[in-house]
Amino acid sequence: MVLIKNLEWEYADSETSEAEIIDIGLRLGYSFPQDYIDCVKINGGASVIPEAFNVGTVERCFGSLFSFDEVSSEYIVKKYEIYKGFLPKKVFPIACDPAGNLICFDYESNESPIVVFWEHENAAEKELLITDGLTEEEAEKRARKNIVYVAATFTEFLDKLHD
Alpha helix (H) ranges present in the chain? Predict the structure, then answer.
């Protein structure tokens, strides 16, 4: 694993095997990038110091990586199931901030995802938007309005964390 700056991970779950992480991703329809796998297998469920990062000109705070421990309230599969109706297609949540927003991978452009921030304010479940008269395409467009670019890779995202 490439070490990024001087990050201190706290409250990590027990180590998860790379094979299990890959399997969970594939079962959900995603191929996780190797830098994320290398990090989450030893830091799943953890918070990190420093924790601040910028979304445009707004400073945000990293909460914790989602967990690969099935009994955790932060289990990544549970989190995906909870949020997938609100998130645009090809966007997968990997972490949260303390305010209920998400840090996600966005696979829309290619197989190597970028890191994006999902703002939960004004987010609506796509199914309800369709019921209210929007087309599926319009609901998807609306969901994408809550997504903001953060970094080209997971490693770049970690490198942007600051005090």
Answer: 18-27, 34-43, 76-83, 126-131, 136-144, 154-159
- Whole-number Å distance between alpha carbons of 15 and 111: 26
- SS3 state of residue 117: strand
pTM for the full model?
0.91
Place 41 in a pLDDT band, splitting at 50, 70 and 90. very high
The C-alpha atoms of residue 74 and residue 39 are separated, in whole angstroms, by: 16
Bridging pattern class, strands 58-61 and 52-55: antiparallel
Q: Of 119, 118, 109, 116, which Cα lies nearest the Cα of 150? A: 116
CA distance 136 to 141: 9
The residues that bridge with 162 in the sheet, in sequence order, are: 52
Please tell me the predicted confidence (pLDDT) of residue 5: 65
Preceding peptide of 50 cis, ω within 30°: yes
Asked if 63 contacts 98 with a C-beta cutoff of 8 angstroms, the reply is yes
| CB-count exposure of residue 17 (10 Å: 0-12, 13-18, 19+) | exposed
DSSP 153: S
